[in-house]
Amino acid sequence: MTDQANPPAVKKLFIKTYGCQMNVYDSQRMAEAMGADGYVLTEDQADADMVLLNTCHIREKAAEKLYSDLGRLKPLKAERPDLKIGVAGCVAQAEGEEIVRRMPLVDLVVGPQTYHRLPAMVRGEAPAILTDFPPEDKFDHLPARTSLNRATRRAPAAFLTVQEGCDKFCAFCVVPYTRGAEVSRPVDRILREARDLVDRGVREITLLGQNVNGWHGAGSGGEWGFGRLIRALGGIEGLDRIRYTTSHPNDMADDLIAAHRDVPQLMPYLHLPVQSGSDRILRAMNRKHTAAGYLRLIDRIREARPDIMLTSDFIVGFPGETDGDHQDTMRLVAEVGFGTAFSFKYSPRPGTPAHDRPEVDSRVADQRLQELQGLLTKQQKAAQEGMVGRALGVLFEKPGRQAGQMIGKSDYLHSVFVDAPQAQVGDLVRVRIVESASNSLRGELAA
């Protein structure tokens, strides 16, 4: 029996998440795993019994950012020696024992494929450094999805990982080395997790994977592609919205394009990275698609779903890029017309094929990036202004700062601010857009 006069002390977990949506999902799953072991989340790092830094290796200087954050934790560790400090994610996978060597204050290091063993590591029942690729599926060992705040239901939007790893081996990318080969989760487990999320109040699910539209798996009637999975998810009562990211042009199969036409829950929004508009640079990147092929694909997608908004990723200044290559990218962007896009100056990643290639002069790359971002910003502004006057679905996710204001996401993933005093988090309503701001929209409840 529990001693009612002396209940066990609550253990508090602070998680800092770096980078991508996949890491947000992983942080949630790690929090759930630790929650099953008696931990609750805290937003106060100084009050935590454990600090976990969930890292991402996609962005520039990822390792340096980690070591800088660990340096800031030194005074807290010195003041509280019992504080546990862990490093998770892709930098943990890449750096391994080097993290502990450079920062002895770190108690454990866990890679993306082994974080299901995090509670055992904290208890001292597993090695303090786990960065292997285990044969077992980590999802088999994670607890059922729960609310991160035990007093409330889940937020109305949630992530669900369906695929991990990548076999594309783009010359600039570390994912195949930190996340491993492509692995697709089984159909039944995905559908079970989705139904569980809906039962807990989720109305929108974003399917995640490093190469999410490459998902495939055995289901009723034989092998399923990603489009069939989306159709099955669309049949779950109460699941009002479906999104997915990140996809590869070479895996936009016919059934997936048709799903954009046929499944009303699949939002009219597609993030489809192209990286460059130059075929020469695309070959150097090992992308295995051409600019013309990408444009033909966009035409097919828009034929299936004319109101779709497209977003993308671009790398500027990739080794060997010329002014002509850059202008090819500018022409592709002008022809497609993106709703928004992420664009970055190339930075080498250790262990990737492009790491030791001669780099483009930094000042030239900066100038090209400014030119590209200028065009993308104009396109984003035009896309947002095109929403003004339209009635869109908006899923309210949180209250705004002003009394009676709610903030939600539109069908096109724009943040929308609405005066709605009677509304609650989780309401999905029609909103007429009345104003476009720099990175958001303002709307009024539609009659």
Automatic annotation (TrEMBL):
Record's catalysed reaction(s): N(6)-dimethylallyladenosine(37) in tRNA + (sulfur carrier)-SH + AH2 + S-adenosyl-L-methionine = 2-thio-N(6)-dimethylallyladenosine(37) in tRNA + (sulfur carrier)-H + 5'-deoxyadenosine + L-methionine + A + H(+); N(6)-dimethylallyladenosine(37) in tRNA + (sulfur carrier)-SH + AH2 + 2 S-adenosyl-L-methionine = 2-methylsulfanyl-N(6)-dimethylallyladenosine(37) in tRNA + (sulfur carrier)-H + 5'-deoxyadenosine + L-methionine + A + S-adenosyl-L-homocysteine + 2 H(+); 2-thio-N(6)-dimethylallyladenosine(37) in tRNA + S-adenosyl-L-methionine = 2-methylsulfanyl-N(6)-dimethylallyladenosine(37) in tRNA + S-adenosyl-L-homocysteine + H(+)
Compartment(s) of residence: Cytoplasm
InterPro entries cross-referenced by the UniProt entry: Elp3/MiaA/NifB-like_rSAM, Methylthiotransferase, Methylthiotransferase_CS, Methylthiotransferase_N, Methylthiotransferase_N_sf, MiaB_methiolase, rSAM, rSAM_horseshoe
Top-level taxon of the source organism: Bacteria
Stretches of the chain forming a coiled coil according to its record: none
Main location: cytoplasm
Binding site for [4Fe-4S] cluster 2: C166, C170, C173
One family name in Pfam for this protein: TRAM
MTTase N-terminal domain sequence ranges: 11-127
Residue intervals of the TRAM domain: 385-447
Domain Radical SAM core: 152-385
Note on cofactor: Binds 2 [4Fe-4S] clusters. One cluster is coordinated with 3 cysteines and an exchangeable S-adenosyl-L-methionine.
Enzyme class of the recorded protein, top EC level: transferase
Needed co-factor(s): [4Fe-4S] cluster
Record: residues binding [4Fe-4S] cluster 1: C20, C56, C90
One function term, GO molecular function aspect: metal ion binding
UniProt keyword list: 4Fe-4S, Cytoplasm, Iron, Iron-sulfur, Metal-binding, S-adenosyl-L-methionine, Transferase, tRNA processing
GO cellular component, one term: cytosol
Function: Catalyzes the methylthiolation of N6-(dimethylallyl)adenosine (i(6)A), leading to the formation of 2-methylthio-N6-(dimethylallyl)adenosine (ms(2)i(6)A) at position 37 in tRNAs that read codons beginning with uridine.
Protein family (similarity comment): Belongs to the methylthiotransferase family. MiaB subfamily.
Oligomer status and interactors: Monomer.
PANTHER family reported in the protein's UniProt record: CDK5 REGULATORY SUBUNIT-ASSOCIATED PROTEIN 1 (PTHR43020), MITOCHONDRIAL TRNA METHYLTHIOTRANSFERASE CDK5RAP1 (PTHR43020:SF2)
The protein's name in its UniProt record: tRNA-2-methylthio-N(6)-dimethylallyladenosine synthase
Species of the source: Paracoccus sediminis
Lineage: Bacteria, Pseudomonadati, Pseudomonadota, Alphaproteobacteria, Rhodobacterales
